[in-house]
Amino acid sequence: MSAAPPITATLPEPRADWALFLDFDGTLVEIAERPDQVVVPARLRPLLGALTEALGGAVAIISGRHLDGLDALLGSTRPALAGLHGLERRSRDGRIHRPPDHGDQLDGLRKAMHAFARQHPGAIVEDKGSALALHYRSDPALEHAARALIEHHCESLGDAFRLQSGKQVLEVGPAGHDKGTVIEAFMTEAPFQGRTPVCLGDDVTDEDAFAAINRLGGHAIRVGTDRPTAAGYELASVNEAYQWLNRLARQLQPRH
Ligand SMILES: O=P(O)(O)OC[C@H]1O[C@H](O[C@H]2O[C@H](CO)[C@@H](O)[C@H](O)[C@H]2O)[C@H](O)[C@@H](O)[C@@H]1O
């Protein structure tokens, strides 16, 4: 993180040649006690529509959730999407890019996580097929035991899988993909190619995205103020993120 630019108070002036990458949980929706309890604000869908129009379609949501779960939350809005922290994505033209599923290799860990959740009511298993998440938001004291359990299983899984920490969650999924690699993939194709990438995110896993954005000469904006970051800019909350994105959409609105 030594190459991180200092946080700049003034955010960059919106430009029509930006490509916008938006994290979901903690950036576009407030964090909830459980993954299935998030509330998608009514203002999100019109905002995504306005941003997509203003930026020539170059808007993507990049999340740790899987694509189907994101589509269910977003309803008829069908933006470019990346799921499972970059493992899978949907291009603007609707093509799905997803490596073969080796989620069955996680069966041992899957069973162990479910047994752990049965023993500890504060733990929740989120099974995303190719990846598994063990949440402990309802009982943060479980982090140590949850991590020990997962690390034990990761030893036998080898290098093909990696453990990622997030907000009160530990996730195991295929190695070699992250939010940085998926932004780089989007930037090779229309309508993102040739634009300046801009990314908003709140979590540790968004730091991979911020590092890629910095390499690509774009603007990384961290939502929240709770830890060190590679982002050069900061917005204090989900609400501030909405205010700034609304201003962006208004300022760049194409004149008809
Ligand atoms: O990349 P994101 O879109 O930010 O997704 C990261 C993870 O978000 C979800 O978990 C987090 O949000 C939950 C709902 O607010 C919260 O209960 C949990 O404690 C957070 O870790 C989602 O459930 C995960 O699959 C995503 O990887």
UniProtKB/TrEMBL annotation:
Q: Which UniProt keywords apply?
A: Hydrolase, Magnesium, Metal-binding
Look up the domain of life of the source: Bacteria
Q: Specify the enzyme's EC class, one word.
A: hydrolase
**Gene3D superfamilies registered for this protein in UniProt:** HAD superfamily/HAD-like, Trehalose-6-phosphate phosphatase related protein, domain 2
The annotated pathway is:
Glycan biosynthesis; trehalose biosynthesis
Q: Which reaction does it catalyse?
A: alpha,alpha-trehalose 6-phosphate + H2O = alpha,alpha-trehalose + phosphate
Q: Name one GO molecular function term.
A: trehalose-phosphatase activity
Report the PANTHER family cross-referenced here.
TREHALOSE 6-PHOSPHATE PHOSPHATASE
Output this protein's name.
Trehalose 6-phosphate phosphatase
